[in-house]
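Exercise 7.
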Amino acid sequence: MTDAAFTSLYNNTSGKVFSGIMRLVQNEAVAEEILQETYLQFLQVKQSQEVQWVNGLLFRISHNLAVDYLRKNSRTESRADLGSEQLPAGGGNEAEYRALRQSIIGRLGGEDPRLLKFYVLSVDYAMHIDEVAKELGVSRRSAFRLRDQLKTILAEFL
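Solution. The predicted structure, written as tokens, is:
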């Protein structure tokens, strides 16, 4: 990838990627670091293989890095707060949320891969339906159909 191509890619995508990271970590300094690491990892992947869904890969890398940061930070804070005590076995709402999210992701992945991408872009990255349609390469009408399918599936989890 040439410098000009990378600069163009960065200028066109970094705002959305940063917004998604900020939504997860809620810390601007940490989000900046994760953003930089996202593009470094993207370049490494791009050198070793052909990438067809560039934006999707950027969002996936940034999401994984943000989640890794949150997991690491959560463990550190929990242990510091509890001192020498053991972590509670139940794990509270966070464990329930993670289990529910994994169930949803598993179900969506088994249905239609576009549903999973739609879910990640709209929920994790808070993208507008028009942006999601553009990222998925579908019409606005198809994006609304995907949204309706997603609503039907998510209703089963309530």
